[in-house]
Amino acid sequence: RGDAGVATRTLEAAWAGLQRRGPFHAGLELASAVVSMPELPIACRVRIDLVAGRALESMGRAVEARARYAEALEQARAVRDRGCEGRLLTHLGTLDVDQSRMEEARARFSAAVVIAREIGDRALECEALNGLATLDQTVGHLDDERPVERRVAPDLGEHVEAADDRRALHGHVEHPCPGL
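Request: output the structure for the sequence above.
Response:
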């Protein structure tokens, strides 16, 4: 019907199922169909490119996924979509870890944690903290006793301490990601 918002949400819903078992190429094909819609708002394009990048990454096409994520990241920043910006940073961070680009990965995951906390997106925060923990495991820093936030993201410094203070004030001392 030509409604880009509905088409984008439908694509995201379809990908939620496809990402578990595939076929991953179907997600990429659907993203290609939706992105070809006339007068597509940039905000929709960002979300479509995120799905396309995830499909490419799932198919083992990391170089293409990185390019799609990088383009979408620029667009997310242009339209000030902080949630998509954070998710794109986590996906780029994962690709960085896979390619042994540890400093870049840490910077991306740390930035995503900050964004997640600024916008109150607990799922994104967990995704970014998980990425940082995976990075820490990859480089062999698992014997440190500090909480995951301080161990894997010391560069968050004051932001982590302020979040801890806010949680303590409100009686919330649990970790944002159960199981970490």
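The two ends are 44 Å apart (CA to CA).
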